[in-house]
Specification:
About 5% of the residues lie in helices and about 25% in strands. The protein has helices spanning about 1-15, 265-275; strands at about 105-110, 120-130, 130-135, 140, 150, 160, 160-170, 180-185, 190, 205, 215, 225-230, 250, 260-265, 280-285. The longest helix is centred in the N-terminal third of the chain and has 12 residues, at about 1-15.
């Protein structure tokens, strides 16, 4: 009974994913523009330890809007017809990143106007002949109610910054919408283990509730209609306090999340159906002013 009450309360608060009774935060709103310039020093990726947030005391702009899309460069008219022209590099967020693995051909970038806002934007890119091209357009997203963090820990509603892979299985309450990944349709007693004391911490389990902040996935509607796992802290790295668990890309609720990235369901399905395991996709998450780390 306590679990059902907790789920209902979380839905009303707009807290979604990574959600637990002890996690909370305020939801912000607004439409201030996002600065998509790329500046900053090297920072955390999925293979490096996060560092403390350098901007925790900043006053964030309340929201994010779409970035200006530069026009495509044209190939010179004098290129000999006997040789294939190399596509000109386009100035976009993806083209200015420098830590993305060479094998990655699909990229998701989630960015906000600062550390303290839950309002963000999401863009997708595809590598064509070695050049990053925008794919699905700019989408409105929500992240943790306390915004981004360079040092996310269990139980705090922040979204971890960094570069991460996508989990090998996608999940949902509904039937497979046509994704290229393995897909598991959720049933009763499907949990995401968010108990740091558990041997299966930060993984999908079926059976008895693992305790702690663990989520009853089949009861979270509509957020878990469909979702992909963001491989933050996978494999788990021991730390005190625990580095956090259950960071997903899922359906948007009524506000900020408990640490995940959320999209309107129609946008999420476009992204999930596009993602392909053989393209080694990565997701980059950070305030726009710190994308230069990656």
């Amino acid at each position: 009974m306590f679990g059902a009450i907790a789920v209902a309360l979380l839905g009303g608060l707009g807290l979604t994913s990574c959600a637990a009774p002890g996690r909370n935060g305020t939801v912000d709103a607004g439409s201030a523009p996002v600065d998509t310039s790329v500046t900053g020093a090297p920072g955390p990726t999925d293979s490096a330890s996060p560092s403390p947030s350098p901007s925790a005391s900043r006053s964030p702009s309340p929201s994010a809007s779409r970035s200006t899309k530069p026009s495509l460069s044209r190939s010179p008219s004098h290129v000999p017809t006997s040789k294939a022209a190399t596509p000109a590099a386009e100035s976009n967020i993806a083209s200015r990143l420098h830590t993305i693995p060479a094998s990655t051909r699909q990229l998701i970038v989630v960015y906000s106007s600062g550390y303290g806002t839950s309002v963000a934007s999401l863009e997708t890119f595809e590598k064509v002949n070695g050049v990053w091209r925008p794919k699905l357009g700019v989408m409105s997203a929500r992240i943790g109610t306390k915004g981004f963090s360079d040092s996310h820990v269990e139980g705090v509603p922040t979204t971890p910054t960094g570069v991460y892979g996508i989990g090998s299985t996608m999940y949902g309450l509904h039937a497979n919408p046509g994704v290229k990944y393995s897909y598991h349709r959720l049933v009763a007693d499907d949990y995401w283990d968010e108990n740091p004391s558990s041997s299966t911490y930060n993984s999908f389990v079926h059976g008895t509730n693992p305790g702690g902040y663990s989520e009853a996935l089949w009861q979270t509607v509509p957020q878990y209609n469909y979702f992909a796992v963001i491989n933050y802290n996978i494999p788990v790295r021991a730390a005190t306090p625990a580095r956090g668990s259950g960071i997903f890309l899922h359906v948007m609720g009524s506000g900020g999340t408990a640490g995940c990235v959320s999209l309107a369901q129609s946008d999420l399905l476009r992204v999930l159906e596009w993602l392909a395991p053989d393209a080694s996709p990565r997701i980059v998450m950070a305030p726009s002013q710190n994308l230069g780390r990656y």
